Amino acid sequence: MQIQAGSITLYRDRCKRCGVCIELCPLQVYTSTSEGYPDPINIEECTNCRLCELWCPDYAIEVRAKDDE
Fold first, then answer.
1. At 61, which helix (H) or strand (E)?
2. Domains of the chain from N-terminus onward
3. What is the three-class DSSP state of 47?
4. N or C: which end of the chain has fewer CB within 10 A?
């Protein structure tokens, strides 16, 4: 059974634009905005592995599964 993300929240006030989330995402859910912030443009591809959330040094990302909503 594969659980898909229902939502990805980015807290820009915490994000230092390091790019860890973009690099770690195995399914390339994120792209970088012109300001350098991660932008989850392919959220439908997200499998809710939460690597981005777990490895974010600033706790700036929150991933919620569809079942959590």
1. strand 61-65
2. 5-68 (3.30.70.20)
3. coil
4. N
pLDDT range class, residue 66, cuts 50, 70, 90 = confident
Neighbouring CB atoms inside 10 A of 38's CB total 26
pLDDT in tens, 2-58: 556 789 999 999 999 999 999 999 999 999 999 999 999 999 899 899 999 999 999
Pairwise CA distance, residues 55 & 21, whole Å? 7
Q: What is the DSSP string of 7-44?
A: EEEE-TTT-----HHHHH-TT--EEE-TTS-EEETTGG
- Of residues 65, 31, 68, 32, the one with CA closest to residue 49: 65
- End-to-end Cα separation, the chain, in angstroms: 18
